[in-house]
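testing teh design pipeline on a random one, pls ignore if ur not involved
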C-alpha cells in the first residue's frame, strides 16, 4: 500500500451507507467534488476494485482511502501525539493491537479534525486497521487489526458476538433493577439544533445492551454495561431510554450540573477469543475515579 494510504473496514454501524457519504465523513472538510474525483480516478477502491459513488457499502468491505484533506496533503500527526499513544498500546501481537484511547481524542478525522486516533496508530504501525470505534469523549480499549486478513477475521468475531466489550459508566439517577437488558432498536436523527442524535425507534437498527449495577450511590448508579451490538451512541441512547442518562453527557444529558468534566463512560474490558482466549483491561482514568469517590 502506498505511503499515507489507509484502508478502513466497514463496521456494522456504517453498513448500507453510500460510498460518497462514507468518504465525506472519513475525509472531513473536503469539497464533495473532490470526493467524486477520487472515486472516478480510482484512488478510492472497495475490496480492491473501482466502484461508483452511490455504491452501498456492506459490512466488512475494505475501503482504500488516499491521504487527502482540504489542501490535498497527507495527514500529519504531531510527533508528541504519536509518542503518547505509543505508550498506551496495551497489547501488540501478530494479529492485532489494543490501544487504551484517551478521552477527547476522536477515533477518526472529520468535522474540522485533521487527524484522529486511527491516523496516530497508522503512523506507529502502517498495517493497523480499526475494527470498531469509540466516541471522542469515551476513553478505553480499542482494537486494531494488523492487515486486511486479520481485520476480516476480527470483524467476523464481532458479528458473531464472540468479542466481548464491557464499559464502566456512571448514571444520573437509578435503574429499576440491578440488571436490565435493553433490547431496543436505535435510529440516527438530527435534533432541532442540527446535532446528530440517536433515539430508540421502531424503524431503527437492532441494538442490545446489558446494564448491571455495581454500586448504588445517593444520586447515581455506577454500572457495568456489556454491548451485544455496536451502534453509534448505543450506551448513551439506551441509558436515556432507561431514564438514567450518563453523568457528564452534554448531548444526551444537558444541564446535569456538576460532573466529572467529561462524559463518564470508559471501555474497561475487551475479551478476544482469537487466536487464543485473551482478556484486556483498563482502569478508570484518574478524573473519573476521583469523581466517583466524590459522589460516594
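output:
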Amino acid at each position: 500500500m502506498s505511503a499515507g494510504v489507509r484502508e478502513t473496514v466497514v463496521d456494522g454501524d456504517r453498513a448500507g451507507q453510500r460510498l460518497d457519504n462514507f468518504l465525506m465523513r472519513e475525509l472531513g472538510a473536503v469539497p464533495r467534488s473532490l470526493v467524486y474525483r477520487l472515486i472516478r480516478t480510482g484512488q478510492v477502491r472497495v475490496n480492491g476494485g473501482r466502484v461508483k459513488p452511490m455504491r452501498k457499502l456492506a459490512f466488512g468491505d475494505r475501503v482504500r482511502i488516499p491521504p487527502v484533506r482540504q489542501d490535498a496533503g497527507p495527514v500529519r500527526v504531531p510527533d508528541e501525539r504519536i509518542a503518547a499513544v505509543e505508550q498506551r498500546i496495551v497489547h501488540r501481537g501478530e494479529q492485532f493491537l489494543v490501544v487504551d484511547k484517551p478521552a477527547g481524542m476522536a477515533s477518526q478525522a472529520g468535522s474540522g479534525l485533521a487527524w484522529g486516533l486511527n491516523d496516530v496508530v497508522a503512523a506507529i504501525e502502517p498495517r493497523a486497521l480499526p475494527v470498531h470505534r469509540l466516541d471522542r469523549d469515551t476513553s478505553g480499549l480499542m482494537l486494531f487489526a494488523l492487515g486486511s486478513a486479520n481485520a476480516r477475521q476480527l470483524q467476523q468475531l464481532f458479528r458473531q458476538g464472540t468479542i466481548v466489550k464491557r464499559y464502566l459508566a456512571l448514571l444520573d439517577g437509578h435503574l429499576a433493577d440491578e440488571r436490565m437488558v435493553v433490547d431496543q432498536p436505535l435510529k440516527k436523527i438530527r435534533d432541532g439544533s442540527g446535532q446528530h442524535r440517536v433515539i430508540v425507534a421502531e424503524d431503527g437498527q437492532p441494538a442490545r445492551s446489558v446494564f448491571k449495577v455495581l454500586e448504588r450511590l445517593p444520586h447515581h448508579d455506577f454500572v457495568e454495561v456489556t454491548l451485544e451490538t455496536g451502534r453509534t451512541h448505543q450506551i448513551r441512547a439506551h441509558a436515556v431510554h432507561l431514564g438514567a442518562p450518563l453523568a457528564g453527557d452534554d448531548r444526551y444529558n444537558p444541564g446535569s450540573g456538576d460532573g466529572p468534566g467529561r462524559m463518564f463512560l470508559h471501555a474497561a474490558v475487551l475479551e478476544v477469543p482469537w487466536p487464543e482466549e485473551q482478556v484486556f483491561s483498563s482502569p478508570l482514568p484518574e478524573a473519573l475515579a476521583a469523581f466517583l469517590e466524590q459522589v460516594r
